[in-house]
Structures are given as C-alpha cells and as structure tokens.
Amino acid sequence: MLELKVDLGDRSYPIFIGSDILSNPNYFHPYITGKSVAIVTNETVAPLYLELIRSILADYNLTVVTLPDGEQYKNLETLNLIFDKLLQARHTRKTTLIALGGGVVGDMTGFAAACYQRGVDFIQVPTTLLSQVDSSVGGKTGVNHALGKNMIGAFYQPNAVVIDTATLSTLPDRELSAGLAEVIKYGLICDPAFYEWLQENVERLMSRDPEALSYAIHRSCQDKARVVEADEKESGIRAILNLGHTFGHAIETHAGYGVWLHGEAVAAGMVMVADLSFREGKLCKEDVDGLVALLESVRLPTQPPSGISPDRFIELMAVDKKVLDGQLRLVLLDSVGSATVTDNFNPANLMDCLEQFCS
Amino acid sequence: MLELKVDLGDRSYPIFIGSDILSNPNYFHPYITGKSVAIVTNETVAPLYLELIRSILADYNLTVVTLPDGEQYKNLETLNLIFDKLLQARHTRKTTLIALGGGVVGDMTGFAAACYQRGVDFIQVPTTLLSQVDSSVGGKTGVNHALGKNMIGAFYQPNAVVIDTATLSTLPDRELSAGLAEVIKYGLICDPAFYEWLQENVERLMSRDPEALSYAIHRSCQDKARVVEADEKESGIRAILNLGHTFGHAIETHAGYGVWLHGEAVAAGMVMVADLSFREGKLCKEDVDGLVALLESVRLPTQPPSGISPDRFIELMAVDKKVLDGQLRLVLLDSVGSATVTDNFNPANLMDCLEQFCS
Description:
The structure is a homodimer of 359-residue chains. With 359 residues, chain A is of the alpha/beta class. Chain A folds into 2 domains: 2-169, Rossmann fold; 173-357, Dehydroquinate synthase-like, alpha domain. Chain A has 12 helices and 11 strands. The longest helix of chain A is centred in the middle third of the chain and has 21 residues, at 210-230.
C-alpha cells in the first residue's frame, strides 16, 4: 500500500493506492464525519464493486445513486438526479458522498458535494486508470455544457482518494489506453525520467503488469499533487496539466460527448501540441516522432477525426477556459519534460498545424 | 455615502450605501478585473435601472441576461439560461458578473459566478430592501430544488456590494414590508437598541423616509457583516441569521415558491419562534405580543397560511439545512436581542406551538 498526501493547508488529504482495498474500512471510516453516506456510481461499475464498499458501510444510513454511464450524461440534468435522491433520503449537510466510478462519476459527485446544501464532504474512489491518475486528484469538479466541456463546476477537494488497482482488471482495453494518455502527459510536462521509464515499460503496462501499473499511478499522482499544491485554483502553473486538452476538448465537443474517450482526444491533442511546439522551434522532430510512436504503442489515436476543419477547431477552442480576454493560450512543450502556458506563438504556425492535421 | 467593510481576509469586500450611485463608475470599475461584464437582471428591474448601469460600462464587452421575475424561477433550469448566454458570448474566466435585482437575481447570479468556469468575479447590486439588508451580503448563493429551498448552492463572496437606496422608490409596498421583516430580525437576534429604534421609527420607515431607510439598511448590513465575519460558512453562530427561516421555508415550500414573499414567510416564522421561545420559558409574553404588534404595523403576516397541518410542517422542516443527523435544530430567542441555535427544546412545546398556529 502506497500513501501520498496532497498538501493544501486545511484542505489537505491522503491518496491511498493499493490492491483490494475497497472493502477495508480503514481507508473510509476516518474520512466520513456524520452518520449518513451516499454512494454515487454508474450502471457499469455498480455490479462490479458496489457490494464491496457497501459491506463496510453497514453502520451508516446509506443511499445509492446509480447514474447512466457515459460522458454524454455529465450535465446539469444528471446532476439534479443526485440532488433528487439526496433530498428524498433526507441527507443533511453532514452527509458524505462517495464517488465510485470513473472520471464522469468523480467530477459529477464532487460537484454535487460542492453544491449540496452549499457543501458536504466527499471521498473519491476512482475505478478507471484515467480517473486514478488524473481527475480524482486536485479538486476539479464539474459538468459539461452543450457549448463547452467542464464549463460549470467548482474547485472542491475530497476528504480522501482511495485507489484500488484491482479495479483495473475489469477495465476495457480502450479505457486502459485512454488512461495511459494522461500518464504519458505527466512525463511530457514535468517528469522526463518518468517519460523515459514509460517508453521502456510500455509493454508491461499494456499487459497490465500490476507492479508497473501501481508504479505509474503512484508517480502520476505524485506529479499531479506537486503541481496542484503549487497552484490549486489554476491561476498559473497548474494549467500545464491541460497539455493537449484545448485541442482535445475541441475534438470531444465536435464529435459529441462520449464518442471519443477523453484520453483519446487528449492523445491526439498532445501530438498536435508537439507539432506546434516543433513549428515554434521548441521541440525537435525526433521528440514529436517519439511521442507518436509511444502513443501508437499504447493504441491511442495520434490525429483528430476526419471532418473537423481548421476553422471549426478555432471556433471550438475559443470557448476554452484558458482563453483570457479573447486571447487563445496554449500549453506548449519546451522539451520533453517541460511545458509552458503561453499566448506567445505565431498564429500562422497554429494554422499550419491545424491544416496539416485536418487534411 | 456610507461605506462598510466585510472583513473575510483575502475575500474581504466593501458595501457602498448611497442614493443615486448606480451610474457612478467609482463604485464599479475598481471591482471589475477583466474587459468583459455580464449584467444579470430580470424583466421587472431591467426597464428601471439597466440603462443607468450600462451607461458606465461602455468600455467593456457587455452581455445582458434578463431572467423572468420571481422565486419560482430560482432553479437549475433558469441558472442554465445564464450559462447559455455567457458561453454564447464567449465570456472567459476573467469576466465579471453584475447582479442587478432582488434576492432571486442576486442568489442566482452569485451561484452562476461560483460555478461558471469554476469561478468568476461578481458584484451585487441589490434593488429591493430585502436583498439590500440580507441576501446581497455574506456570500450565500444558490437555487431552490422542488424538495427544498436553497438546497443547491455555494458560499461565494462578491467583489463589492453597491446599494442604491434610490431604487427603493420603485419598490412595491408589499416588498418594502417583506424587507422590513429581515430588518426586524437583526434587532431580534443581536441588536436590542436597534429593535427599540425600529419600534419608535416604524412609521418613518413605512412612509419611506430616506434617512430612516438608509440608517436601517446600514445598521442591518453592519449587524450581518459582524455575524458573517465570525462564522463565514455557518458552522456555528451564523445560523442565528436564520431566525424564523425554518418555519418560513416550510411555509414557502408548502405555498409554492413565489406565492408568499420570503420576508412574509420569515415574519410568520419569527412569530412562531417567539411563541416557542415563550413556551420554553425564554421569552416573556409581552415580548411576543410586542413583536406581533411591530410586524402588524409593518403590514406583515403573523401566522402561517391556513391549510398547513402540524404534520406537514414537521415534514417540510425535516429537510431544512439546519437538521443534522436527523435532529431538528431551531434558532430560539433568549430575549429580545439575543438568539441561540439549539436542538435542546421540548418536542411537546413545538407540537403545541404548531397546533396553535395551524388551527
């Protein structure tokens, strides 16, 4: 069992990483303050893991909210289903929500916790690789809007994050790959040694070697915690965690939520960023090719879907949260292992990049 | 012009109270950080005051969101109308929202500011007495749910509160009275000298004497700021601001949002609390009668609507946010000018109280 701490003053919390820890009360009971708990999960995850957690919550007033599965349900309407259930079961502001599922469940449960009676406690129990290495850590919560991804939400930290690596045994291959996109991202933005390790261990990860997966999760959470601690509310450096996300969100919005997995869109977005960074003279051609090769070995897409034009890209990127007062900002790579948020790039290079990928 | 400060560390902000200050840029420009502003108002207020504010915002990218007027629109669906407009007009996380209207507009705009792109700046410009003395100060934002009032929301402080007392000249009599309910509340819970002043000056207030109204607003905001500073997120003492609100919310939910004005429901609720406090041996009969007389002179209701049974009251109060782990807590009066939050009261006294008022 590995334990990490996200150090945010009075909003600090532990991340537990281990195998078969979902039915261990030690990772849950100390982080539940009242007598009531509501588990929010989805139709896919509930049959697999709900009973494990339920077994250690016999002493609490328990409500289970089972949502439909998919990014297309990450909206205000589905969020209201959580509020309906909480109010019907008379949950007070002393209740604790438990998010059992992937990134969609985690983001929505966290936002529900932020808003229900102006704020209740919650615990993240991510069951996909992507949510374990990314969305469950750092307190970004929210839902999508028809006009943009994650446009409605809150910064709201959990009481604890419980990562059971055994849940990865039931994860579909496609979602494993999508999670690895975010893992690779950490190497690219701030951890060159980890990036090298990933290049050397990609086969072990793809064959779900438990030790390799645990290491990758731990290292990713560590990298993310370090960035979040430096800039909780993304007024600066935290934005580097969005490497590839501006292009990626445009792809997701264009394709329709749920058609491309988030990690898949981020993978294609990272290649586009690498290409733009190369055009800006920041990255060498070998590094771009190396990234494409790494993503291909993880069976991730390395270009956007056909049918999305450069103009459509620009239009969709214009609503990105990193746009400030009309100026598009992007996370660019200075080298493998180092990223910067900047609006200082040649627009012609961006257009060339978009035209290359949209041809 | 009077100025107050709400002292909450890095979330501190000023309250400006004056006549004809809506078109004075000094109260707005320093509190707008970016180049974009969105004014959120409603159909009733827009024709009266929108142009005044708009006149000083010519240098900003300006969006106006006009909502339907009424408590029945204070819900997630209407909130989403604000997000629609902000996204359509490409507002970024550097935008500033301005809430121009009463409590409903203020609560919804504040909550929209808390959630839009995980948090943007906002300014409160309350145009009703009730919102000037209560909802615009202290950072409680949110919307109603069919199963309970203000059940979804956030603690989110504005950058500034601009109170133009000239707006009260267009306020309907019924809303003036409703606002005075909250003014009287401050006297009851923490300011006996102000309560005495109110008893002596009720006629001046009802005839809209500008000096008397300004004084009452300033003193109310001062009392509220003091309580909020001591306990921003209502873990303790702040709950006394809810005097009469547990009964009041039950009345509002039962009657249907918008049928009773919030202040009217609070007035009836305060009488019920005074009665229960009397039954608990805390308040003398003269004080209860004095409160009824004061509320009557302000033309406020002093009992709940007919047709609401004691059992229905109990059921509706059970979802109140002050219920913790199944235990109903109420704000009771120890004397005129002093209140306590407690679950330590005789349930039989509560039932007697409900039966008296529901006969």
